Each structure stands twice: as C-alpha cells, then as structure tokens.
Amino acid sequence: MALAGLLCLTVLAIAGPTGLLSWSEQASLLEQREARINTLTAKRDELRNRVALLDPAAADPDLVGELLRSDLNVVHPDEVVITLED
User: Fold this and answer.
1) How far apart are CA 37 and CA 47, in angstroms?
2) I need a surface site. Which of 38, 48, 73, 80 has the fewest CB within 10 A?
C-alpha cells in the first residue's frame, strides 16, 4: 500500500496539474499575462494623462479644440474642411 501511495504521489508530482510537466505551460501563460498587463498599464497611463489635460480647472486648449472639432463637428468660420477618402 505504501509503495502504491508513493508511486501515486510521484506521478502527480511529475504529471499533475502543478507538476513538472506543466511548468513550461504556466511560464508561457505568465509571460502572456505580463505582456497584457504592460499593454493595459500603458493605455491606462495614456488615459490618465488625457483626463489630466481635460481638467476643468486648467484644460489644455489644444486638446479641447481637437475634441470640439472631432466630436461636435465645430469649425471656425475661416477654416476649410478637407475630407479624405480611405
């Protein structure tokens, strides 16, 4: 019985869900998730910067003008709009 138990533990240590054979799979999953975290962190920092530029107390005039033109289709009377086809 003891030998069968020891054999079972050995098999689980090698081929089990947390065994030696699954380490490479876990390492690749870890690398993928770290890359995803880095991508999301960069996007979060970009959005945080954009929010800081749109702070009502001190909004960046260039960004406000860009958003007005793109979202509301607002232009100055002396501007010319040129549309480009893709």
Assistant:
1) 15
2) 80
> CA 1: distance to chain centroid?
51
Q: Is 16 exposed, middle or buried (0-12, 13-18, 19+ CB in 10 A)?
A: middle
Print burial letters for 40-68: b (CB count within 10 Å at least 16), e (below 16).
eeeeeeeeeeeeeeeeeeeeeeeeeeeee
Record the tokens describing residue 32, joined without a space: 């993928």
Distance of CA 43 to the CA centre of its chain: 6
Determine which helix (DSSP H) or strand (DSSP E) holds 70, and give its type and residue range: helix 61-72
- Tokens representing 44 are 């979060």
Asked whether 68 and 74 are in contact (CB, 8 A), the reply is yes
User: Do 12 and 19 form a contact (C-beta atoms < 8 A)?
Assistant: yes
pLDDT-derived band at 36, boundaries 50, 70, 90: very high
